[in-house]
Structure formats: structure tokens, C-alpha cells
């Protein structure tokens, strides 16, 4: 059973808040950054990718964020708009902040890393006063993402968005999205992640991300059920712990656990898996599907993105996900 109900009267399905940046993905793959000469530019940042994924899946989507007043900022807003995302709540910085850049190194399908340039990044300058209450009031589902909690004033902006979502009855999803480079310490991360997670209905993260959150709340066995059960004493109704290629496990408040099979993939690079999984899963939950079916849909969406060069640009439509699952079932798609 799907434990989440969405308000049918609200005109907007989904709004995400947080990081909007640029990914520069290595064109010459299977080599280190030192030997990489050319890159392709894409819109990036986990919440941006998830919003693009939701819009491609047919969800009415908006974004709350801040972009630099430059060509990169305009590239981001233009791309979101071309993908059907309402950018009325994306504000422009006027302090000289820049667009965060993520250069990706693709050494092998399993060995990928990201080299970040995020000093004075515009997305972290979003203030609480710039968060539109109106757009959150209209949305069925608000997604927050961990990186936006890394610094003020963006941190306060996220907490303000959470307050508006709770006031207006929007379901809240939290993708932990831990990116170490924007944080001062792991203790700081644990404190703010916990404060935000208390207010969320759906929490998605990798085992490593939940371990980080448990810095002051030890779980020596790294037990997924122990991790999940803590959040059911607060607002959570679904907690998902992701384990890369091994798949993911979801827990619900009734004590049940849910697993979905994962699909084979011809992996080009691993990043973007979590974002496409989140979009596919949240779409399924909004459709009223079972947790297992929603997870399966997210897993197949993830395989499409990790088999592609980009994250945002590769986000699939619902037809593409269904076709992918059919091709796996018929043996047409096998693992790398
Ligand atoms: N190599 C793989 N083959 C098949 N499916 C995969 C693979 N890697 C990830 N997935 C799918 O994507 C989901 C999310 O992956 P993962 O646990 O790596 O998330 P993540 O670490 O948040 O991703 P990201 O690298 O984007 O931060 C998994 O639960 C699984 O369904
Ligand atoms: O900001 C990053 O850490 C990289 C992103 O831009 C990238 O698109 C990503 O987050 C993939 O999950």
C-alpha cells in the first residue's frame, strides 16, 4: 500500500528548492581528469536534475532557487523553461556570486568523481525572504536537498520552505544528497540534516549518507531498519536507504520493508543514479502505485541515466522507462 496521500486540489505537482549549477562531463571517458581535454556542458545539481526528471515524467513542476547574473545562470533558467519547469521563483543574484561548476572525471564505469568549483556559489545565496510561499502553497510535493543546508542564507531558506510546506499541507521529500565540499565539518552536516529530516515525510539517502547523519546517534551495525525507525517517531512515512548496484530498501511506518529488483545497465558513469531514482520513485508515489512498483520504476530510470553521458539531459520520459523495463525483461538489455 502507498502510505502517502496528495492534495488533489493543488494545481502544481512538484516544487524543488536548492542547487542549480553546471555539470561539465568529460568527453574522453575512461581516463583521469589530468588527461581529459574536453567536456560537455549540462545543467546540474541534484534538485535541478530531479525537477527535470519529474517534468519529463509529466509532472507539473516548479523550482525555487538562485542563479548568477551571467551567461551560465541564463543557460540554467533557459534549460529549465524549455523543459516545462516554472522558474518564476528562481531569483537572480546581484552580489557578483557565480554559478557552481562540477567537472566530472569518468575513469571507469565504477570509478567516477566530481571536482567542484563552488566558492561564492549563487545557489547558496538564496534567502528565506526570497522563498515564495505561494508556489509552495500550490504544490502537492516539496523536495529539499541536503547541499542547500550547507551554508547560510540558503540553509534558512530551506527551513522557511519547510515551514511553508507544513503550513499548507504539502508532502515533503528530503534527498540527503551529501556533497562534502560545501560543508565545514561532518558534525555540522549531521546536526542540520537531523533538524531538517524531522520535518519530512519521505527521506531518501545512501547508507553512507545515513551513517553521516548518525554521528551523534550511533548505529554500530549500520542497520537499515534501526536507521529508518528513528524517523517514524517524527514525521516520516517512508524512509529509503539506497545501496548502489545492490538496489534499495524502503521502510514504512507500519513496520514493513519493501525491496524492488534492480535492472541491468551498460554503465557509463555512476553519478545521477540517485537523482533519476528519486524522480522515478516520487512519480510512482504520486501516481498512487505501491512502494515496490515506484521503487522499480525509479531503479529503471536510474539505469537509463547511468547508461548515458549526462544526468539532467538523460532524464527519461515514462515511455522510455517502461520500454527499458520491457527490454530488460526480454533480455534485450543486459549488464555491462
Ligand atoms: N551499477 C548499477 N546498476 C544498476 N542499477 C544501479 C547501479 N547503480 C545504481 N543503480 C540504481 O540507482 C539507485 C540509486 O543509486 P545509488 O545508491 O548509487 O544512489 P546515489 O549514491 O544517491 O547516486 P549518485 O551517484 O547520483 O549520488 C540504486 O538503488 C539502483 O536502483
Ligand atoms: O553538484 C554536484 O555535486 C554534481 C551535480 O551537478 C550532478 O549533476 C549531480 O549531483 C549528480 O547527482
Automatic annotation (TrEMBL):
PROSITE patterns: PFKB_KINASES_2. One of its GO terms (molecular function) is ATP binding. It is an enzyme of class 2 (transferase). Keywords: ATP-binding, Kinase, Nucleotide-binding, Transferase. Residues 15-317 form the Carbohydrate kinase PfkB domain. The keyword Nucleotide-binding applies. One of its GO terms (biological process) is inositol catabolic process. It catalyses: 5-dehydro-2-deoxy-D-gluconate + ATP = 6-phospho-5-dehydro-2-deoxy-D-gluconate + ADP + H(+). It comes from the Bacteria. SUPFAM superfamilies: Ribokinase-like. Pathway: Polyol metabolism; myo-inositol degradation into acetyl-CoA; acetyl-CoA from myo-inositol: step 5/7. Its EC number is 2.7.1.92. Catalyzes the phosphorylation of 5-dehydro-2-deoxy-D-gluconate (2-deoxy-5-keto-D-gluconate or DKG) to 6-phospho-5-dehydro-2-deoxy-D-gluconate (DKGP). PANTHER family: 5-DEHYDRO-2-DEOXYGLUCONOKINASE, HEXOKINASE FAMILY MEMBER. Belongs to the carbohydrate kinase PfkB family. This is 5-dehydro-2-deoxygluconokinase. It comes from Paenibacillus montanisoli. The gene is iolC.
Amino acid at each position: 500500500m502507498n502510505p502517502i496521500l496528495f492534495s488533489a486540489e493543488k494545481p502544481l505537482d512538484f516544487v524543488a528548492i536548492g542547487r542549480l549549477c553546471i555539470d561539465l562531463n568529460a568527453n574522453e571517458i575512461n581516463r583521469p581528469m589530468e588527461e581529459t581535454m574536453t567536456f560537455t556542458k549540462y545543467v546540474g545539481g541534484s534538485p535541478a536534475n530531479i525537477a527535470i526528471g519529474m517534468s519529463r515524467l509529466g509532472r507539473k513542476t516548479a523550482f525555487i532557487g538562485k542563479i548568477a547574473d551571467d551567461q551560465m545562470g541564463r543557460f540554467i533558467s533557459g534549460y529549465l523553461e524549455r523543459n516545462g519547469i516554472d522558474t518564476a521563483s528562481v531569483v537572480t543574484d546581484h552580489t557578483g556570486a557565480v554559478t557552481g561548476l562540477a567537472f566530472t572525471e569518468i575513469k571507469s564505469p565504477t570509478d567516477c568523481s566530481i571536482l567542484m568549483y563552488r566558492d561564492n556559489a549563487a545557489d547558496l545565496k538564496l534567502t528565506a525572504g526570497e522563498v515564495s510561499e505561494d508556489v509552495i502553497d500550490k504544490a502537492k510535493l516539496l523536495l529539499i536537498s541536503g547541499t542547500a543546508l550547507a551554508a547560510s542564507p540558503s540553509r534558512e531558506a530551506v527551513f522557511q520552505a519547510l515551514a511553508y510546506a507544513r503550513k499548507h499541507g504539502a508532502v515533503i521529500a528530503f534527498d540527503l544528497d551529501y556533497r562534502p565540499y560545501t560543508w565545514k565539518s561532518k558534525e555540522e552536516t549531521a546536526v542540520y540534516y537531523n533538524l531538517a529530516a524531522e520535518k519530512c515525510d519521505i527521506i531518501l539517502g545512501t547508507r553512507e549518507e545515513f551513517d553521516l547523519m548518525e554521528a551523534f546517534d550511533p548505529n554500530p551495525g549500520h542497520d537499515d531498519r534501526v536507521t529508518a525507525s528513528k524517523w517514524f517517531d517524527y514525521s516520516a512515512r517512508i524512509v529509503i536507504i539506497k545501496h548502489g548496484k545492490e538496489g534499495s530498501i524502503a521502510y514504512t511506518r507500519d513496520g514493513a520493508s519493501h525491496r524492488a529488483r534492480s535492472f541491468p545497465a551498460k554503465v557509463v558513469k555512476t553519478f545521477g543514479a540517485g537523482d533519476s531514482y528519486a524522480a522515478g520513485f516520487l512519480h510512482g508515489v504520486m501516481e498512487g502505485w505501491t512502494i515496490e512498483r515506484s521503487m522499480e520504476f525509479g531503479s529503471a530510470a536510474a539505469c537509463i541515466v547511468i547508461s548515458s553521458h549526462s544526468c539532467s539531459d538523460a532524464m527519461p520520459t515514462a515511455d522510455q522507462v517502461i520500454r527499458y523495463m520491457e527490454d530488460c525483461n526480454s533480455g534485450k538489455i543486459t549488464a555491462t
